[in-house]
Design brief:
By secondary structure, the chain is of the alpha/beta class. The chain has helices at 31-38, 45-60, 71-77, 82-92, 102-113, 122-133, 153-162; strands at residues 3-8, 11-17, 26-29, 66-70, 97-98, 138-140, 169-171. The model is unreliable at 1-21 (pLDDT under 50).
C-alpha cells in the first residue's frame, strides 16, 4: 500500500493509505515568492512578469497544495523596509512554519561541502535542506542562481538522495500548476 505523510511544523502527524482521501501535494514556499507577491510593481520587464505570474499562481493554484514556510523564511521576510516586511509577514501569516532541524542543517552543510551551493549562500542550502528533511513535494522559488538552476538541480538531487531524503521538485510558480 502506498503511504504518504502529512507534515505540520516538521512532525509527521498522520499516515494515510490509498484507502483514505488523498492529501494535497506539499509546497515549501521560499522567501523570493513571498517577496514577489508583496513588492511594488516593477518597471523591469522580467521582474514585472515574475510578479504577475506569482500573483496569478497564488490566486489560481495555491489551493491545490498544502503550503509551508520555515523559520528561515520568516526571518528573511521580516528584514528590510519595515512597511514592506509587514506586508510579507501578513501574507505568510497562517502558513505553517517548518522547524530548522538538525537533519536540515546537516543536509545544507553537505550541499555546501560538496560545492553544490557556495558557502556564501548558506541560506539557499538551508532552504533545500529544510524542504527535503520535511519531505516536501515541491520547493517553490524564484531563486535561479543557487536553487532552481538547470546546471545544479541534478547535483542537488544527488546530494539530497545520498543523504537519505527524496529531493523536492525545485520549481518556480511558472512551472508549478500549469
Amino acid at each position: 500500500m502506498e503511504q504518504r505523510r502529512k507534515f505540520q511544523n516538521n512532525k509527521s502527524i498522520e499516515t494515510l493509505t490509498e484507502n483514505h482521501q488523498a492529501m494535497k501535494p506539499t509546497v515549501y514556499v521560499e522567501s523570493s515568492v513571498i517577496g514577489y507577491l508583496t513588492a511594488r510593481p516593477s518597471r523591469d520587464v522580467v521582474t514585472a512578469a515574475r510578479q504577475a505570474i506569482t500573483a496569478q499562481w497564488w490566486k489560481r493554484h495555491r489551493g491545490r497544495y498544502e503550503l509551508f514556510i520555515s523559520a528561515l523564511v520568516e526571518e528573511e521576510i521580516s528584514q528590510g523596509d519595515p512597511e514592506a516586511a509587514e506586508k510579507r509577514l501578513v501574507l505568510a501569516d497562517g502558513i505553517p512554519a517548518l522547524d530548522v532541524t538538525e537533519r536540515a542543517n546537516a543536509l545544507a552543510k553537505g550541499l555546501i561541502a560538496r560545492g553544490v551551493v557556495p558557502r556564501s549562500s548558506e541560506e539557499d542550502a538551508l532552504h533545500i535542506g529544510i524542504a527535503a528533511a520535511a519531505g516536501m513535494d515541491y520547493l517553490l522559488t524564484w531563486n535561479f542562481k543557487h536553487i532552481n538552476n538547470a546546471e545544479t538541480k541534478g547535483a542537488i538531487a544527488r546530494v539530497v538522495e545520498h543523504n537519505g531524503f527524496a529531493c523536492p521538485v525545485l520549481c518556480s510558480p511558472e512551472e508549478l500548476g500549469g
